[in-house]
Amino acid sequence: MSAEEALFQRFGKDIPRGTVLFREGDPGKEMYVIQAGKVAISKKVRDVEKVLAVLGPGEFFGEMAIIANKPRNASATIEEEARLLVIDPRTFESMIRGNAEIAVRMIKKLADRLSDADAQIETLLLADPHSRVVHHMLELCQ
After folding, report:
1. What is the DSSP string of 30-96?
2. Residue 72, CB half-sphere, CA atoms under 13 Å: how many?
3. Domains detected in the chain
């Protein structure tokens, strides 16, 4: 049995398309690692659900709620049938303590997400829509 299969045996779940894993405001009791499939992360803005990201294999989500012990700040819905590893806070902490590589990968991914959020904030701070479009196009070119 491969290491990936062993992890799935212990922590894995197959989840059908359309399943809502959690909603914004729910308590956070676990985080997820995607082995297969796609998950949409969305947030309600003025009563309209906006997709912030669609995550695929190898990506993780839901960690903020268990790290900060706060309610979920977004919703997660299965876009494409998914195989997920479901990790509780105690297991997460022991994984981080026991494997520096996992911690470093998570820190790098969280730094990327923070950088993306900063870029989105900068775009939103521009006064008019035309400036936002030009700014966004320049970022894409870089």
Report:
1. -EEEEEEEEEEEEEEETTEEEEEEEE-TT-EE-HHHHHHT---SSEEEEEEEEEEEEE-HHHHHHHH
2. 22
3. 1-88 (2.60.120.10), 99-142 (no CATH)
Number of H helices, E strands in the chain: 5, 6
pLDDT of residue 78: 98
Q: State the pTM of this model.
A: 0.78
For the chain, give the mean pLDDT: 88
Q: Are 102 and 93 in contact (CB under 8 A)?
A: no
pLDDT digits (tens, 9 = 90+) for 50-86: 998 999 999 999 998 888 889 999 999 999 999 999 9
